[in-house]
Fold this protein.
Amino acid sequence: MKMKAPSKLYMFFVFLFLYAPIVVMIIYSFNSSESTAVMTGFSLKWYERLFHDEATLRALYNTLILAVASSVFSTVLGTAAAVGLDKWKKSPLRTGVMSVTNIPMMNPEIVTGISMMLLFVFVGKLVTDEAVLGFGTLLIAHVTFNLPYIILSVLPKLRQTDSNLAEAAEDLGCRPAQAFFKAVLPTIMPGIVTGLIMAFTLSLDDFIISYFTSGPGFQTLPIAIFSMTKKRVKPDMYALSSLIFAGILILLILYNFAQARSESKNSKDSRDRV
């Protein structure tokens, strides 16, 4: 069914509203001057300065390490939690556990950040008199707010999976763990990868919770950029933001392409069996 003209116009303005700021940022990352109003010429000098800015590169490195570590840990824990929740289909505890699981996602970030900071400081005072806020506390905080997204990405795939699949694998000689990894895990892998990518981007983007749970020895990129806003954001931040956007975009395109190929292959195999 073809879209009518008003629908097309509406979609055009929606995408314009969403992506116009990003397009403007990318254009001005190639500006030869520091102006944000006048395009004086094309230049790559802001990209060059970016790769010579040690403080920014260190903050970017910290952010990537934190995003990778938190997304991997939260994906493992979230997948295990989703499998456990899927087993509780008729248990009255399921509703309560799901409600508690969704609290970090629904709770305002500033409340989560302040409460976690107080918890870390309180526990740290019981253990040692030294400052405890740093990479460890950031990692725990990021895993905490990433978990609900992983669970909500994996649970629908588990519901779509045949409940007898693991039992069939065990009947063929697999132990329970082998049955899960060889039979169930491949079928829910798209949901796991989706949750992993979402957790990575959320961790990469987070500022409020990171601001309250980080220490002076470990600074992420959003916090570093926020400290620049007290004076003026340098144009090399436009270049860095453009590179991050391009990287995430390429990652999503590759994932969608791989998923489309996998679905096409599975559909073809199903037709061949018929």
